[in-house]
Structure formats: C-alpha cells, structure tokens
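Issue: ligand-bound run for 2P0 - logging full I/O for the record.

Environment: standard queue, default settings, no custom constraints.

Inputs:
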Amino acid sequence: MTVRSARAIAHSNIALVKYWGKREGADPALNLPAVGSLSLTLDQLRSETEIHANAHDRFELDGVALDGKPAAKVFEHLDLMWRTSGTLSARPPCFVRSVNHLPTAAGLASSASGFAALTVAAAGAFGLASSLGDAGDPTRTRLAALARQGSGSAARSLWGGYVRLDAGSDPSGSDCIARPLHGRDHWGLKLLVVHTARGAKSVSSTGGMESSRLTSPYYPAWVASSLADLDAAERALAGRELAALGEVMEHSCFKMHACMFATRPPLIYWNGTTLEVVRAVFQARERGLVGYVTSDAGPHVKVLCEAAVADALAAELAALPGVHEVQAVAPGPDAHLELL
Ligand code: 2P0
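Outputs:
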C-alpha cells in the first residue's frame, strides 16, 4: 500500500475534570489513564497536520525540522497507525508537517491537538478512513483510542464541544472510551486563557504523572475521588449549571495540583502570577463577575465563564501585573480529515 497525502485539523481541549496518572500494572504502550476526564474542546487553539510520502522520515513543526525525542514519538505513533491498517510490509517513509496554532508544550494541551491531528491525518494517509462523519461516527471512537496511545488527552480532541473519557478497567483498554457529551452549541460559555509566562514547561506531563503515582501520598485519594467529580460535572453540564460545574472543576484542578505539590521532588507548575490570577478570579466572583479557574501542567490559568461576562473579566485579568495576554476562546469543532 502507498501513502496518500492527507491533512487533518484537531482542536486542543482543556480538562474541566482532570487526567493525571496512568493505570497501575497496565501495558505502558496502551497509555491507559488511572482516572477519567471531561473536557471542553477549544475553538482557536488547534493543530494542522499533513502527511505525505517522502524519501525518508521527516517531521517539521511550525516550519522547523525536528529530530530526537519529538520526532521519535511522532514516528512511533505512525508505526502504530500503520500496524493498525493491517499492512504487513514496513511502513513507508513519510513527511509529517505540523503547525500548532497555540504555544507548544506550555501546558496549553499542544500534545492533545497534536496527537489527535497526527492520528487523523495518518488514518487518511494509511487508508483507515477517507473522511470523518459527524460526532456519532464510530470511526471517531476508534481513532480516539489510537490517539490516546500517543497522548492521553488527545483522545478527547476527536470531538468538538464537551467530551468525556472514561478510565475503564479492562486490561485490553477496550472500555477506556472517549465519547462526546454535547456539541459546541450546547452552552454559550467562553474559556479565558490567561497567559502568565512564555516558553515551554520544565517537566513533561508523562514523567510528572509517574512520579506523582510513585511518591505523592495524595495520589490514592486523587484517584479514588475522581469518578464522583466526573459524574457531578457531567450532570452540571447537562443542566447548564455554571456554579455546580465551576465548583467541581476547581475542586478537580486544586486536588490535582495538591497531588503534584506533594510529589517528591515537588511538581510546581505555577508561577507567582498564576496564584494572583486565581485570587483575582475569586474576588471578581464575589462582585458578581462570575468565572471559575482551572490550570494544567503549566503556569497559565484558564477561566470558564458565560460569554456575556467574558470581555469584562478578560479586561480585569489582562490588567494584572505578569499577565502577558488573555485569549477568549469559544467551544471548538470536531476534528476534520481531508485527503489531498
Ligand atoms: C488533562 N493533563 O486532563 C491533564 C491535566 C495535564 C494536566 O492530559 O502522558 O500530554 O501523553 O498521556 O495527555 C497532559 O497529559 O499526557 C494532560 P500523556 P498528556 O488535560
């Protein structure tokens, strides 16, 4: 079989209920999470990836040729996609060209959109799919499971709107399934991405999760309490109850960071401005300007709010010392595949 030229677009996502930790005793290649997660897909923040046949493997990100670990992860994932296509011959060399419309590796989920776009583009290039249908298309579910093997959060980027990824318990990973809960038009929410630093984060998520599992005394409590958060968030989302969703979203975020802080050595992804932004959001909420915070494996703060208050809240946060930029992002669309 030859490689077809294909292009994919996948949007990043932010976890409202967080994933942190791999399932103990599972095959590492399956990359099974210890906890489920629930996310919002983001409109402007996206990865666009093309795959073409080439004389040798080549990976280009934002116009720069990369080798070493980032390229190795990309081509390992292509090998997985090629094996999945059922072709027995060796994978032909490919040119993978990716553009990230978001800061890479800064805790803004570039690996989610990146691995989702890579998975979808490879599915097109290797004949696993020629197009993707609407949110109910079972091909999306299959590709989400493959994307997860590249990066856990990537499984959630196959769909727009609101997505739940269940941890499952079967050793094969067959019940670790992502599914769309609501489309992007379900609720007029905005996510304010408050940038508090520039540049890449210092500890990768994968390494950080493992060290939390091995050393944080709070890790078992984190895992044990996650299912209740997921169910509460799903209910609040269905009823469009922002206070209930915000409360469980902040609880999930601060529990994850408490678990990170208690890791040895400690994982502190925040900077001073992170905490100042969190305080400012709490204070604005008391004055009736209602937003709820979350943050990931990086120093930026994301604030979930109704679209009607987004501009006023964004202006307040943009004025804080140490804040570089505030981006207001709407719920984003499904991942997209195009054969070239
Ligand atoms: C999340 N994060 O749910 C959480 C919150 C970071 C903090 O998913 O090891 O890059 O590749 O499966 O998906 C970031 O971790 O980790 C992440 P791997 P991934 O969004």
